[in-house]
């Protein structure tokens, strides 16, 4: 559990002052963000009393927040351990990437048809930013997430966007980014460029194929890392 000095990355309830969101929402946003950034890693035990003290809240809103996160799959209640940040096993990771391949491939296909020139230009700028972040794997991971989230919006399908955003939440449970591996960072950057080029060509088939290959390549690297850790 992070100590109080780690809290500034996500404002505590004490520092938020009077806001329109409820205390339960404040607790929810804190824990959710801490999971997404890796401050709360998979397997981390979540204790109500410690979170309540950290955020300057009573235990009731913290309990509500953890219950909500559990319903979303980001938190799990394990026998003998209590509430923890969900850990994904190999089967779950495989299922996650299968869905990513299908949904992101579809998003790329739709984006090739429906994205405006301005949107594709913005995606190109994000892809070009990869080259400026060589060796900065945390910043690369943020830029990578921004690239994919922008691609989702370029599809112009609200239901697909909602599903993919939910899937992105689960991606936070995978642990450290594979972009810390220099070879993967280089390949990923190149693949982003190819994805954007397919959109610029307005080629739905090519855009979907390249995007699917991009997700499959990411999965192979992730799986290799998991197997080496066993």
Describe the structure.
This protein is mainly α and 230 residues long. The protein has 2 domains: 82 residues, Arc Repressor Mutant, subunit A (Orthogonal Bundle); 140 residues, GntR ligand-binding domain-like (Four Helix Bundle (Hemerythrin (Met), subunit A), Up-down Bundle), CATH 1.20.120.530. It contains 10 helices and 2 strands, in the order H-H-H-H-E-E-H-H-H-H-H-H. A two-stranded antiparallel sheet has the order 1-2. The longest helix has 26 residues. The protein is globular, with a radius of gyration of 19 Å. The N terminus is likely disordered.
**What is the annotated CATH architecture of the largest domain?**
Up-down Bundle
The third-level CATH topology of the largest domain is Four Helix Bundle (Hemerythrin (Met), subunit A)
Bin the helical content. Answer: 55-70%
Distance between the termini: 24 Å
Q: What does the main sheet amount to?
A: 2 strands, antiparallel
What value does the Rg take, in angstroms? 19 Å
**Strand order of the main beta sheet, please?**
1-2
Portion of residues in beta strands equals under 5%
CATH homology superfamily name of the largest domain = GntR ligand-binding domain-like
CATH level 1 name of the largest domain: Mainly Alpha
- The helix/strand class is mainly alpha
Specify the number of helices: 10
List SSEs in N-to-C order.
HHHHEEHHHHHH
Number of strands: 2
Q: What's the rounded overall pLDDT mean?
A: 89
User: What are the low-pLDDT stretches, counting only 5+ consecutive residues below 50?
Assistant: 3-20
Shape: globular
Q: Total domains, how many?
A: 2
């Amino acid at each position: 559990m992070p100590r109080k000095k780690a809290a500034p990355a996500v404002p505590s309830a004490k520092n938020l002052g009077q806001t329109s969101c409820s205390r339960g929402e404040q607790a929810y946003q804190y824990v959710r963000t801490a999971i997404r950034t890796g401050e709360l890693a998979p397997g981390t035990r979540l204790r109500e009393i410690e979170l309540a003290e950290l955020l300057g809240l009573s235990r009731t809103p913290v309990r509500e927040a953890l219950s909500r996160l559990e319903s979303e799959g980001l938190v799990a209640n394990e026998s003998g351990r209590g509430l923890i940040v969900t850990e994904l096993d190999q089967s779950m990771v495989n299922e996650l990437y299968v869905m990513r391949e299908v949904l992101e491939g579809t998003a790329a296909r739709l984006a090739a048809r429906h994205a405006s020139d301005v949107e594709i230009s913005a995606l190109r700028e994000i892809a070009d930013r990869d080259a400026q972040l060589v060796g900065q794997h945390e910043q690369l991971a943020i830029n990578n997430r921004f690239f994919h989230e922008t691609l989702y919006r370029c599809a112009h399908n609200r239901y697909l966007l909602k599903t993919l955003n939910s899937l992105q939440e689960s991606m936070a449970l995978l642990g450290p980014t594979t972009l810390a591996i220099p070879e993967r960072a280089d390949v990923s950057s190149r693949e982003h460029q190819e994805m954007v080029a397919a959109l610029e060509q307005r080629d739905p088939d090519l855009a979907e194929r390249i995007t699917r290959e991009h997700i499959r390549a990411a999965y192979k690297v992730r799986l290799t890392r998991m197997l080496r850790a066993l």
